[in-house]
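Help needed: design a sequence for this.
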């Protein structure tokens, strides 16, 4: 017997710049001048082949300056963040339907609704603050339904759990839509007045009978029917989702299929009725709002709109190219063919967060120049040519962030950053100066004021008003009033001119996972989060938690018995891309043929060596939620706890 070290890796806080004289040599300490001069030279020689990775954990102000750096200093729209890894399909789907990429409701509204549908979301673990609002709704009488392959901690609070097969969300949504239509529960006035494409949608879902859906999804027909009737008959209903919907090769189509249900029933554009994608990090919404995406300028303004470009060109004294840049997924593909040779990575850890992580590391190593700006020496930073120590956006800097309810809130500096760590904005401006652009901001508020002058949705959000109201949801175009907490109330206007563009139904088809199971890889692996840890564990791994137990491959009791393994026993987990060794955990919330792992402990068990880079063609998000694997016994067994959740 041997003992496994269950202590997660503790990452070193960066306190001074690091450079290396060659890729074969270790880092050495450098002055800020030397480090920034090296960065300037590395970026200058790679103009036209540059990409910026911005940060969903940093402030709005940092993201604004980062995308401005990419577009003005480097002349490219190649800027993106980990929004691409998680909720880009939500933004794409909501934008296609409504012209806006934000969730349509406030958190408070879930407390005052009649039906809550948690679809592909273990919110109790992944979004515990939002889940407290959901529980208030349940206590106030709301009926909650959980649609998820696993019987999660969230599902335990639901009135009904619909345990569908991984990758059958569209089939489920279409069957619900067909049942609503056949039961005469369509909100016909809303559909006629506020939508387009209903006839095509009705024809699309017609084949999806309850019996066919039961065969495809594995959910009993009566449970699908019950959810359809509860959702359609409710006066108010909230449909919430997370990565169980988006992290698929057809994630945007999944989102459109859920939006269709809201359009069918009129559950959007009213208080208590809406669509809520739950963001996992403090500023995923804000990063996109600030323009740290390749197809939108700050304020989610269309980069292809000539009037929008002229406004920014005048403010920034530059020329903005009328085309989209590369998203994060496309930038990694461009590394492969050599058309992207330099990357400025702020606060992201793609070496461990990207699908097929071995491939991601190989591509990062192949860059001519990589600079990482972060608070820890991450696995990605270990690959860099220059590492710049930054401040922690949530405690060591001033600024704002935007939650998934579109609420912009102030962030205040509470502690002094260690050593020579500097503000992200100061670093970017110093570097811009070395590359010919003299940017002077008195502080974060000055950056925010510039953003407000360019983004109508944020114009009314002065720092003083944000403090007065303890945060404000966008849109907020006026400095003397607040808008409703929900979006798209215009769709209910009787006057067509005030109603604006109708919301189109999404004509999307069921498409099974790309990585098919077979005799060689008979188990479907899905991934997710746990309550005790955060992303790749860089920020959370160094802190103790009574809930933390490290990484396991979770199996149902039947599969454990079938493979002859017991709780705590090490097994080899293999996909078509790689293998890892992990101990077994027995989870009665799983069904036969389904396994579960997280991305929280990549230094111990690199789960993303198993996941597939099958990307949504619209949003670029990979199919983290559906890999095919096999389980193999090892000759040596590990003694470990035998807890069963």
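Sure. Designed sequence:
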């Amino acid at each position: 017997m041997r003992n496994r070290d269950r202590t997660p890796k503790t990452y070193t806080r960066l306190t001074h710049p690091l450079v290396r004289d060659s890729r074969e040599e270790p880092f050495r300490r450098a002055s800020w001048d030397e480090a920034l001069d090296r960065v300037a030279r590395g970026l200058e020689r790679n103009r036209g082949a540059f990409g910026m990775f911005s940060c969903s954990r940093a402030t709005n102000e940092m993201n604004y300056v980062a995308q401005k750096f990419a577009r003005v200093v480097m002349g490219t729209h190649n800027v993106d963040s980990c929004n691409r890894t998680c909720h880009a399909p939500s933004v794409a789907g909501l934008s296609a339907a409504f012209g806006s990429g934000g969730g349509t409701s406030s958190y408070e509204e879930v407390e005052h609704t009649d039906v809550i549908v948690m679809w592909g979301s273990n919110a109790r673990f992944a979004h515990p603050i939002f889940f407290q609002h959901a529980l208030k709704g349940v206590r106030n009488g709301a009926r909650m339904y959980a649609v998820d392959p696993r019987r999660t901690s969230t599902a335990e609070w639901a009135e009904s759990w619909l345990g569908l097969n991984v990758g059958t969300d569209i089939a489920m949504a279409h069957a619900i839509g067909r049942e609503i239509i056949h039961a005469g529960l369509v909100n016909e006035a809303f559909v006629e007045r506020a939508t387009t494409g209903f006839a095509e949608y009705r024809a699309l879902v017609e084949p999806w009978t309850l019996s066919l859906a039961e065969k495809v999804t594995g959910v009993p027909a009566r449970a699908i029917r019950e959810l359809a009737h509860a959702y359609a008959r409710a006066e108010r209903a909230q449909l919430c989702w997370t990565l169980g919907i988006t992290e698929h090769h057809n994630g945007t189509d999944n989102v459109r299929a859920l939006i269709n249900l809201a359009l069918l029933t009129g559950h959007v554009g009213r208080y208590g009725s809406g669509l809520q994608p739950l963001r996992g990090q403090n500023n995923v919404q804000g990063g996109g709002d600030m323009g740290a995406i390749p197809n939108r300028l700050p304020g989610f303004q269309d980069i292809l709109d000539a009037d929008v470009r002229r406004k920014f060109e005048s403010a920034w004294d530059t020329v903005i190219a009328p085309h989209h840049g590369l998203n994060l997924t496309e930038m990694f593909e461009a590394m492969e063919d050599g058309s992207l040779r330099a990357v400025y990575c702020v606060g992201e850890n793609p070496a461990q967060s990207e699908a097929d992580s071995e491939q991601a590391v190989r591509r990062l190593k192949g860059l001519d120049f990589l600079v990482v700006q972060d608070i820890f020496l991450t696995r990605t930073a270990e690959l860099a040519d220059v590492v710049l120590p930054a401040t922690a956006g949530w405690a060591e800097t001033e600024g704002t962030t935007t939650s998934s309810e579109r609420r912009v809130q102030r962030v205040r500096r509470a502690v002094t950053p260690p050593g020579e760590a500097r503000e992200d904005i100061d670093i970017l401006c110093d570097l811009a100066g070395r590359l010919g652009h003299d940017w002077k901001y008195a502080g974060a508020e000055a950056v925010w004021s510039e953003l407000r002058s360019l983004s109508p949705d944020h114009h009314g959000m002065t720092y003083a008003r944000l403090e007065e109201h303890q945060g404000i949801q966008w849109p907020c175009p006026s400095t003397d009033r607040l808008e409703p907490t929900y979006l798209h109330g215009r769709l209910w206007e009787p006057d067509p001119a005030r109603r604006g563009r109708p919301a189109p139904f999404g004509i999307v088809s069921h498409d099974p996972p790309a990585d098919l199971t077979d005799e060689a890889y008979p188990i479907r692996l899905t991934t997710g989060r746990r309550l005790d840890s955060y992303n790749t564990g860089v920020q959370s791994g160094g802190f103790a938690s009574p809930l933390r137990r490290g990484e396991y491959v979770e199996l149902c009791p039947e599969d454990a018995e079938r493979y002859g393994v017991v709780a705590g026993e090490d097994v080899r987990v293999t996909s078509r891309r790689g293998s890892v060794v992990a101990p077994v955990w027995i989870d009665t919330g799983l069904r036969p043929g389904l396994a579960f792992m997280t991305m929280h402990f990549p230094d111990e068990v690199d789960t993303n060596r198993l996941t597939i880079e099958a990307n949504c063609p619209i949003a670029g998000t990979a199919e983290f939620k559906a890999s095919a694997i096999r389980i193999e016994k090892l000759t040596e067994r590990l003694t470990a706890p035998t807890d069963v959740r």
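Residues 638-645 have pLDDT under 50 and may be disordered.
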